[in-house]
Specification:
- This protein is an alpha/beta fold and 221 residues long.
- It has six helices and nine strands, in the order ααββαβαβαββαβββ.
- The strands form two sheets. The protein has a seven-stranded mixed beta sheet.
- A hairpin with a 6-residue loop joins β8 and β9.
- The longest helix is centred in the first third of the chain and has 17 residues.
- The protein is globular.
Length: 221
């Protein structure tokens, strides 16, 4: 299947997500159209990239379903110039979408070396070299060198909200994270830092299914 066909299928999916009100923000729609998912999967899965389901990526991980990515980006309310940390790079797709929304360098942490390599290759081929920085490390500890952040977006399910991530938020900043069981069922939490004492306000956006967040402040590997 050639790229024109892949992109036509992708456009139809984006239109369906908009029609179903999953995508409401025109800026999120524009980012989706600029960064199609087929650029971030292995060749064997490109023809399925427009299907609204997770797909396999290396190291036994997955690239999220488009509707789930759209929901999290809508909730994040990303604005140009925001400082954003992503925890769980995976394929690099979500980080590229974040860049399109903030138009500022994005930092993303991945614990699996194979995925760091996979994401970097995808990002370079898609034109995001020097725009998205992939860090090998334990994302549950955050990334202090670039803190504090306006937004932290976690793309794996944690047993609880990691304290270092709250500490690295700006006051008024927002953390989006799935919290719950080890596999297949969590609640998507929106955590807003309300003061310098790390007190937070939490909103629950319902059930989601993510791979486990492994690390010192997450699940044990």
């Amino acid at each position: 299947m050639n790229e024109d066909d892949l992109y036509r299928r992708w456009m139809r999916l984006v239109e369906n997500l908009e029609g179903g009100r999953t995508i409401k923000d025109t800026r999120v729609k524009r980012a989706f159209l600029r960064v199609p998912r087929y650029k971030f999967v292995s060749d064997r899965y490109k023809e399925y990239a427009h299907v609204d389901e997770p797909l396999p990526i290396p190291a036994g991980q997955t690239i999220s379903a488009p509707h789930m990515v759209a929901i999290m980006l809508e909730l994040a309310e990303l604005g140009e110039g925001m400082d954003v940390l992503e925890v769980g790079t995976g394929s690099g797709w979500n980080a590229a979408l974040i860049y399109e929304l903030v138009k500022k360098e994005v930092y993303t942490i991945e614990r699996i070396p194979e995925l760091v390599e996979f994401a970097n290759r995808n990002l370079e081929q898609a034109g995001y070299r020097n725009k998205v920085h992939v860090i090998l490390g334990d994302g549950t500890k955050g990334f202090p060198p670039k803190a504090p952040y306006d937004r932290i977006i976690v793309t794996a399910g944690a047993p609880k909200v990691p304290e270092p991530l709250i500490e690295q938020l700006k006051v008024g900043g927002k953390l989006l994270i799935p919290v719950g069981r080890y596999h297949l069922w969590q609640e998507l939490l929106e955590v807003i830092k309300v003061n310098e004492d790390n007190e937070v306000k939490v909103k629950n956006h319902g059930g989601v299914a993510f791979v486990p967040l492994v690390g010192e402040y997450g699940w044990r590997g």
